[in-house]
Amino acid sequence: MSEDWDVSEEEMDAWLEDYEAVDREAAEYLAERVPTLDEPLGDVDDRRITHLAGTIAPEDEPDPSDVDIEPLSAVMALQHADWLGMALGAVRRGPGSELDAELVLDDIDALDEIEGDVDDRDGTLSVLSMAIHHLMPQWQELGVLDDEGRFTTSGVRDLPRALHRIWTS
């Protein structure tokens, strides 16, 4: 490994603290806009949210022989604002709304109180499209999306909950 990649333990700890702070801010932002996050869930719903969270932020390293790394990398490249745009757009449009990269990009642009702009619209659209293409069959299997790639009632409810769980755990 080159010397450029030598990172001290203190630098790594500081980076992790910064990332956890962004997680907390994103969770708070989401909770302020989706007041139903605190509603109790049944066991089946809780398990579905756990599985959904695993598609967004896998806990284990994927086996390269089991998964196409490029689309998974697109999912992992999504930032907090991307996920917030996706979840809040689904909540705003409701069940039956399409999961579409261009709509998600518009939803990201519409986020209030989020710093920064999408600098490379085409590049962001490409990453979003690849990530959605990767997530769609998994989310259809979980009932988040229907067979046509449209959010279900449980998908609209569960996507913000899964993100909130990831960002607060």
General description of the model:
The protein is mostly helical and 169 residues long. It has one domain. The chain contains seven helices and no strands. It has helices at 9-33, 43-56, 69-77, 80-93, 101-109, 121-142, 153-168. α3 packs across α6.
Q: List how many beta strands DSSP finds.
A: 0
Helix content: 55-70%
Outline type: globular
Rg result? 16 Å
**Strand-residue fraction?**
under 5%
**Poorly predicted spans:** none
Keywords, separated by commas or semicolons:
mainly alpha; 7 helices; globular
Summarize the structure.
The protein has 169 residues and is an all-alpha fold. The protein is built from seven helices and no strands.
Mind sketching the topology for me?
Blueprint: H1 9-33, H2 43-56, H3 69-77, H4 80-93, H5 101-109, H6 121-142, H7 153-168
Helix pairs in contact: 1-4, 1-7, 2-6, 2-7, 3-6, 4-5, 4-7, 5-6
